[in-house]
Please model this.
Amino acid sequence: MGTYLLPKSSIHLWLSKLLSRYAVFVPIEVEKQIHWHLLEPKDLETEPDSITPAQRRIRASEPVKSFMFEPRQQVASFPDALTFKQPGPRVLLGIKSCDLAALKVHDKILGEGEFKDPFYLAQRKNTLLVVADCPEPEQSCFCNLLGLTPYAAEGGDAALSVVDGNWLLDVNESGKELVDAAPELFTDLREGSSELARRDEQRHAALVSLNLTNARPWNPDLAGAVAAKLDDPAFWNKHAETCVECFGCLMGCPTCYCFLLYDQAKGAGVERTRTWDACYEAAYARVGGGANPRAEFIKRFANRFSCKFSAFKTDHGMYACTGCGRCFKACMGKIDIRKVLGEL
Amino acid sequence: MSNPYQPIPATILETHDETPNIRTFKLKPEREIPFLAGQFVELTVPGYGEAPFTPSSSHFKRDTFDMTIMKVGRATSALFDLKPGDRVGARGPFGQRYPLEKFEGKDIYIVGGGVGLAPLRALFLALVHEIGKYQRIFLRYGARTPADIVYKHLLPEWQKIPKVDIDLSVDVSDEKWMKKVGVVTCLMDEIPCDEKSSIAVVCGPPIMMKFVNQKLLDAGFQGGDIYLSMETNMSCGVGQCRHCRLGPYLTCKDGPVLTWDQIKDLENPFV
Model:
């Protein structure tokens, strides 16, 4: 739709306008880690701009899926059916390219199949996504190996770049209402402007940095290579050696979508809850009679790779991994997924 | 938009004890569940959870449906404490039906083991409902002991249906047992149909399916004509939660019945 400049002096003003229309979540830095924060008016009372620095950092610790596919959510009740509550409008201001790509995985599973998840879709439709550039990728980032860029190449409702403290917004038709909240604060940016040139330089530098960190591409037929390794327990044993089965890699993963449904008595009725699940869990595939096709941990370890890099690619034409590096950062055993895949 | 996780209430109309630990429940759902033979339903035992079962009654009558269930775990134990008039929850149907159009004009060779006859009963009743479309129906069924045979009261009636041939075996006999003794494959030494152009349908414990499948292949059945009920942990029923993954398949969506050709390359499909 258009590209706009929001000068640093107007950032808080714009955000305060957004607050009157939406619940706005922004990344903030807490003890060097980035976390999502529900913006409140008092956050905008401080000067200088308190919101911008975290926008330049990499993705938040919490995957964006948490907002659409909640870690724990009631999805049914019995005998009276659950009444569906329409969620209010939200803006996630500052998601990253890796998390945007991860939402596509959830769209495929929860939003596009024969059976659609009304809870996910309601949250997805009511949430505007502003995708912020990653001018400073870290050592744990590897989106380039998945064919992604450290900025929004496509998708989302708007793209945000921080240039010299000012905000540049590339706004799609779906994100027009964000600018409409205070159009007087924005100025049009024309192609060839110095701000856009600076943005492009920043983006290029970020890509160069990522390509240096992750210089060696993976096997171009990763799906086939993973599938071919499945009957080689020695390979998986070698890489799983330091795993303590904490499931941190799975709980932090922005693409993992496995879940568990469980029922609990509530008064005279029953509440059904959906909670994130982990395929490393020993009982994950066990059936009522006790049989378990993946009773040994090593099979569950290999299954994770098979699911993300082979089955999902075959079924949906994309990998269920976006290079965010959360699995590696969470891992107590220092298992780097890049190393595992790099040996295929 | 409908909520795929929301069960509808279904009232238990009657129960019938098939064996000491297998019971048939006749259920009347608030709304018809439009299942076809082979598809399954997630049954909610209020307060105890949910488990997948394939209806065991004919899909030509769906205002009520039967489920024949073995008491094995928490939810099924709680289910056995329920009485006629009590309510359970049901959602479905899920999964794929038997492709009956591919069965037309052919002999159907059905092999069941233990409670595995339950889903096969839905198929059997669908076949005999339109018996003219099929050649002959063979039913081979094995149970541990005569007391463990399900549908004891129905089997003699089924045997009277023209074009139907039934034979039974038990692993351990009693003094009244007049038929074969041995695992169900002992009924398969002679298969009285043209294996190359017949359909085989198998449901039972994994180890039984493994050996029955091998016997069918040895006899000359085509891998694409052997239909096997795969037991995996089908939880959501809608191809999302991923618990039931079996190689490239999600059993709840692609199965639960898969052909041998579909699963033959898996490392160990019969776990």
In short: The CA atoms of residues 192 and 217 of chain B lie 15 Å apart. Residues 8-94 of chain B form a domain with the Elongation Factor Tu (Ef-tu); domain 3 fold (CATH 2.40.30.10). The longest strand of chain B covers residues 8-19.
